[in-house]
Amino acid sequence: CLNDHLESILAANDLCNRYGLDTISTSSAIAFAMEAREKGLLPRLSPSDPNLGWGNHRAMIETIHLIARRQGLGDLLADGVRAAAERIGPPSHDFAIHAKGLEIAYHDPRAFTCMAVNYATANRGGCHLESLSYFLGYGLIMPDLGYQEPLDPHRMEGKAKLCYDLQNYMAVYNPLGMCKFIFRSGLGPNLLTYWVNQVTGWELESGELLHLGERLFNLKRMINLRLGIRRRHDGLPRRLLTQQRGSGAAATSLPDLDRVLPEYYALRGWDEEGIPLPERLRHLQLDELALSAKTYRED
């Protein structure tokens, strides 16, 4: 939002926490409204609506209150940028930055191409926590998973496999009730499996723990398929695929999803429409869902 007023940023974060609003989605919704107003697509809905504009920190704070109370402009933004764009109409969809309805976090997939794969395929939509793969773009290594050297964050090569590995690994953190950010200390599946075994008395190998993570990820995918998610939803906003950043080390970097998604689907054991193949579901002990997968394939 081009806001460099530190006190207001701290206040906005505190307000979101007190209201129970997600800071990423809320700030993305406010930025969407600023751009819509700049382009003349969003007139003031009432005299009390804040005078939104880039860098107007007071208007940002006012808008957070309105979103939480669903008043005026806040009612338009409270359901997120996808719903707001549907109400405003074209061309606001061009700058509604979301994946599957969830506002994309600020780990730019043009700079961290691994996050392009993750945002497009994550079961929750534009959620950075489904893989945290950008940490390997920062220089983190993960020998347990075969990543002995830092990865080039701007290249697409190997990013389908990276996303696949880390989505499976991150999937086990949720049922364990663990904070995923401990991963950035270099915690790999070998040590995590040891901890799990010490707590539970199990005798898992790290490969079995990752197998459980893959099972969880595919179970969520099957739920999404039941809700109507298909290949066409595994994508990113056009702006992130076509508009270069223009500065920095990733000035000209753009993710090539058309190239990498088929590779990702193959690693997952999904067909070209993103539907898990029956044999992969059986391999994951999800036999009862194999028939459902066939039904979705025939839709």
Characterization of this structure:
With 299 residues, the protein is mostly helical. It folds into two domains: 6-96, Orthogonal Bundle (Aldehyde Ferredoxin Oxidoreductase Protein, subunit A, domain 2); 113-297, Orthogonal Bundle (Aldehyde Ferredoxin Oxidoreductase Protein, subunit A, domain 3). The protein is built from 15 helices and two strands. It has helices at residues 6-19, 23-38, 57-69, 73-77, 81-88, 113-121, 134-138, 159-171, 173-176, 189-200, 206-226, 238-242, 257-268, 278-283, 287-297, and strands at residues 98-99, 102-103. Strands 1-2 form a two-stranded antiparallel ribbon. Helix 1 (6-19) runs parallel beside helix 3 and helix 8 packs across helix 11 (206-226). The N and C termini lie far apart (42 Å). The model has no long low-confidence stretch (mean pLDDT 95).
Shape: globular
DSSP summary: helix tally: 15
Taking the alpha carbons of the first and last residues, their distance comes to: 42 Å
> Which strand order do you get reading across the main beta sheet?
1-2
Q: What is the share of helical residues? A: 40-55%
Instruction: Please write the CATH class name of the largest domain.
Output: Mainly Alpha
CATH architecture of the largest domain: Orthogonal Bundle
Beta-strand proportion: under 5%
Low-confidence stretches: none
Which key phrases capture this entry?
299 residues; mainly alpha; Aldehyde Ferredoxin Oxidoreductase Protein, subunit A, domain 2; Aldehyde Ferredoxin Oxidoreductase Protein, subunit A, domain 3; two-stranded antiparallel ribbon; 15 helices; 2 strands; 1% strand; globular
